[in-house]
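Note to self: keep these together.
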Amino acid sequence: MIKVVTPSRLHLTLIDLNAEIGRVDGGAGITLEYPGLEISASKADNIEIIGNSLLAGKMQKAVQALLPTGEGIKLHIKDSLPDHVGLGSGTRPHCRQQ
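Structure:
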């Protein structure tokens, strides 16, 4: 099983919008412990996504596009961030295995 846990990020501003210092759309922000994102994944016979989240549809599409035919996965969305409220729901998470 793999478990992904991430904090949220309060975005204060974007910096370097035209890449003059080398980072397009880099930002300044503050990390918040809550709300956060927690997802666990394990092998399964079919694709199963558990949890009421706006991410479920996106995850379903991504899994179908990435998994080889005949492979399955069980994703459990325990907690998720609301979309488009400036908390970094589109930011790439850091992963740890358990």
